[in-house]
Structure formats: C-alpha cells, structure tokens
Design a protein that fits this description.
Blueprint lengths: L1 E5 L7 H10 L4 E5 L5 H19 L3
Parallel strand pairs: 1-2
C-alpha cells in the first residue's frame, strides 16, 4: 500500500497516517508538506511516487 499524506491536513492528522502502518507494516508512507488536498497541491511530487510504487508491483 502506498500512503501519501499531507502534514498540514487539519482533518486527517499525521497520527492517522501512522495508524495504517500498525495494520500494514510493509506499507510505504510519504508525509508531505501540504494540506488536505495533497494531489492538487503537490501533484508533480506525488505522481512520481505513484509511478515508482506501481513499477515495483509484481506482474
């Protein structure tokens, strides 16, 4: 699982992102300097993370 999280999100705080890792310890977590609308604010930074993650999946 790929988790991309905005550290400035007032609704979904960092602890929420880290909670995923308790259930999915092999998940890949990226905490970004952005808010709730991370994709709209940081698309050029997030798109390569998604592409690299998908490239690593077994085929």
């Amino acid at each position: 699982m790929l988790i991309v999280w905005g550290l400035g999100d007032p609704f979904s705080v960092e602890a929420g992102a880290r909670a995923y890792l308790r259930d999915l310890p092999d998940a890949e977590l990226h905490l970004l300097d952005t808010g709730h609308f991370a994709l709209e604010e940081k698309l050029p930074e997030i798109a390569p993370l998604v592409a690299a993650f998908l490239d690593r999946l077994p085929r």
